Amino acid sequence: VEPTAFRKLFPIFDERVYLNSCSQGALARPVQAALEEFMESWHRQGNPWELWCERMEELRAEFAALINAEPDEVGGSGRGAPAGGARPRALDWSDRPRVVTSDFDFPTMGHVWLAQRARGAEVAYARAQGDRLPLEAFEAELDERTRLVATSHVCYRNGFRTDLAALAELAHAHGAPLLVDAFQSMGTEPVDVKALGVDALVTGTLKYLLGTPGVALLYVRRELAERLTPTDTGWFGQADPFAYDVHHLDYAPGARRFQSGSPPVPAVYAALAALRLLREVGLDAVRDQVRALADLAVAGLRQRGLDVMTPDDPACRGPLVMVRCRDVQRLIARLAERDVLCSTRDGALRVSFHHYNSEADVLALLSGLDDNIGLLAPASAGTRDQEE
Ligand SMILES: Cc1ncc(COP(=O)(O)O)c(C=O)c1O
Fold it and tell me: Does pTM surpass 0.85?
């Protein structure tokens, strides 16, 4: 599916330039149809839980195929939290108390591990160096007491993209598995968890996976999953939920053991349709489109002498680009008046690209910035010198 044909599936583009997929992906007609199918099944059948649970199984298999895992290595949950989804209470901190996360992670990532301090965990942060989080920043925090490295693929607040293969190798050299928060990358490029050596990965489906809020997907390498005993569990984490056995714990094999309650059915319907749509497009094609647009945006911003917070090196960024502002709220309002929808973090303008975006979208953004240039921050003399 070519970007222009793909775009036609998303009615928002009839009226707007949508550059906020990093918060919520746009709604595609087939995803809307899946949500309507869910409602119809409810109308007509009242209580088709068997069908609804089957949809959850299909979603697990579809996501497994997307990341080159086995369906048994994927669990789905109504909890989106990046580390919450990974069930930190399954981890034993007694011999290896350290978890290494980073300055560039989403707040929940810090919160979940900080809450584990009550169970003996020690939280260390790989420190950002300017707009980057180099491998050495992780290396400085890793030791033989490290239980886990937990960080994002793409940073939500400046778009820095971590080299997962290199980080996995580094973590493994210290005997620690790598858990990846892929909320800001999944759906924008191929991710092969086996080839990358990633041990666990969690993502919501609401952003570039083009689903609704409400469901998170968790991959855990089978051998690792089966060494863990979740204490945060429930009937859908059991080998046979429909055994209705209140007296025993009988964990499901693989990553299904990290599930707890019944699946968030509407979100599952939406995610399944969205993942199928992305499979038709192919993530190689999405990556090429997203890279081309991000390159165009970064080049345009730099040409204007603006203070781009996203790394210049295309290998170190994904779909998200940020630029410093003097008055971001006013800028966002001005852009919205022109039907260009963006978001903000840290007082900076945040834009993000997907397969449905076009060069014309980037040009609409840049012309909106040209007309409001006083609301943006110029690159500092120091930054400009480095570039020259
Ligand atoms: C990197 C990252 N992780 C996680 C989340 C969402 O986490 P939660 O499901 O806890 O809302 C987001 C959403 O903005 C995100 O950008």
Answer: yes
